[in-house]
Design a protein that fits this description.
- The structure is a single chain.
- With 461 residues, the protein is of the alpha+beta class.
- It has one domain.
- The chain is 17% helix and 33% strand.
- It contains seven helices and 29 strands.
- It has an eight-stranded antiparallel sheet. It has a six-stranded antiparallel beta barrel with strand order 17-18-19-22-21-20. A four-stranded mixed sheet has the order 24-26-27-29.
- β4 and β5 form a beta hairpin.
- The longest helix is centred in the first third of the chain and has 25 residues.
- The chain starts with 42 loop residues before the first helix and ends with a strand.
Length: 461
């Protein structure tokens, strides 16, 4: 399948969730206040993993072969593991080589280091230690060199490449070994620095069947809503960039005037947002199976090995595992950087829909390969870079983050005052009420997620 939009008459569409209805606007972030008395919330409480909806547990049971109790336990384990991995990343510093989860209930957290002296520190956090040869920063540098060579003729038959964290290597997937080797050489990367995987897989954007909760682009093509967002006083939704260019006008599922695409990037990234008119307002929910809703409580990025579920109009509510972060994919329309690869199946029509891990937003469907009959893989555009790129605030069921104004592409928070609404990356440092903290997990800050009250996300220095 190609990534072209087909005419509405041919029922072309992308996947959808997150219908817009009237709600209140977010309030500005409150001033710094002393921590509330009593124990701080656990990671599972902060991330909303302690009260998952039944529909989520049912879908995880179907797709991952879990009992409801195992599915609930898995969500709790994944929430807590993210915090432990963040603390270890800070402690290991340049020796850190990645972290991942394994086991039916994600009970096993593995953390890799390049220094055997770190093993006691890793074990003290209840994680399994693995000593490897190359730190994560060096592997990412190799991937960056491949990204820089992506326009070369040699890259045409190389659909994707990424850092394979559990294997401690950079992987290049191509249609033939010779194609991969030519690409690697063009990037100036030594052959021994990468592992070649030969596969006929060619990911494509999933954009040519009817979705649920559709919106129409210039009355020509049909796409679907991802996550509800705000920018300053404006309401809107995030979606995939291949849904339409900036300036395109949209109508809603009822054909009523809806909004205008404010920003769109594809290829390169696969991200866009639509500002809606006063008749539409966003909700902090996405659609699950049987018309049920799953709440969105934040945007904390899930670890490799975590369970993740997505909503799509063609194949419904499906679950799988996060396999790799920061994957570069070459679609027929061009390459896209920074995607996340999953084992969730999808088919044409599922594109644009949201991915959630527990109650945490992860991203919007970009593309994939295979199908839900024989299995396949999908790739999503992570939500946090999208929020940063366009200065958006994610709609959540908890207290709303402060409104944002346009932010630079993928900003890294610096040693500055903690600010609700900013997207913070792991390792960022902030000051709050005179105290210094370091970020443990990528997330968009919310007004009730201040560092002193969320040890799951921040560590005091």
């Amino acid at each position: 399948m190609t990534g072209r939009h087909t005419a509405v008459g041919r029922r072309a569409a992308l996947a959808a969730v997150g219908a817009l209805v009237v709600t209140t606007l977010p309030t500005a972030a409150s001033a710094a206040a002393p921590p509330a008395p009593g124990p701080r919330p656990t990671a599972s409480q902060t991330l909303g993993a302690d009260s998952p909806p039944a529909g989520l547990l049912t879908a995880m049971g179907r797709d991952l072969g879990l009992t409801p109790n195992q599915a609930a336990t898995r969500l709790l384990n994944e929430a807590e593991a993210g915090t432990r991995a963040g603390r270890l990343r800070t402690a290991l510093d340049s020796h850190f080589a990645g972290a991942w989860l394994s086991g039916p209930t994600s009970a096993s957290l593995t953390v890799a280091t390049t220094d055997a002296a770190d093993v006691p520190t890793i074990r003290a956090e209840g994680a399994t230690a693995v000593v490897v040869a190359t730190p994560l920063a060096e592997l990412e540098a190799v991937r960056d060199r491949l990204d820089a060579a992506a326009d070369s003729a040699e890259a045409i038959d190389t659909p994707l490449w990424y850092v394979d964290v559990p294997a401690n290597r950079v992987a290049v997937q191509a249609t033939s070994r010779s194609a991969a080797e030519a690409f690697v050489e063009s990037a100036g990367v030594a052959a021994e620095e990468v592992a070649v995987q030969v596969s006929e897989e060619r990911p494509r954007v999933l954009a040519d069947l009817v979705g649920g909760d559709p919106y129409y682009i210039d009355n020509v093509a049909r796409c679907s809503v991802g996550f509800s967002v705000t920018r300053s006083w404006r309401q809107g939704f995030a979606t995939a960039g291949h849904c339409g260019g900036a300036g395109a006008r949209t109508t809603g599922y009822n054909r009523a005037a809806q909004g205008v695409v404010q920003g769109s990037t594809f290829p390169g990234r696969d991200m866009a947002w639509v500002a809606v008119n006063g008749a539409w307002r966003g909700t902090p929910y996405v659609r699950a199976q049987s018309g049920r809703r799953v709440r969105v409580a934040g945007s904390v990025r899930a670890l490799i090995g975590s369970a993740v579920c997505r909503s799509g109009s063609t194949t419904g509510w499906r679950c799988g595992i996060v396999e790799r972060h920061n994957v570069t994919v070459r679609y027929p329309q061009g390459r896209v950087y920074g995607l996340t690869r999953t084992t969730v199946c999808a088919e044409p029509g599922d594109s644009g829909g949201p991915y959630v891990s527990g109650a945490q937003a992860q991203g919007v469907t970009s593309g994939g390969s295979g199908n839900c009959r024989v299995g396949g893989r999908t790739y999503f555009q992570p939500i946090n870079p999208l929020l940063s790129r366009y200065g958006l605030t994610l709609r959540t069921t908890s207290s709303q983050a402060a409104p944002l104004f346009p932010a630079p592409l993928f900003p890294v928070a610096v040693a500055d005052a903690w600010t609700a609404g900013l997207v913070y990356e792991t390792g960022a440092t902030v000051t709050r009420a005179g105290v210094r903290y370091t970020c443990l997990q990528d997330h968009q800050a919310q007004s009730d997620w201040s560092p002193e009250d969320t040890p799951a996300l921040w560590q005091r220095l």
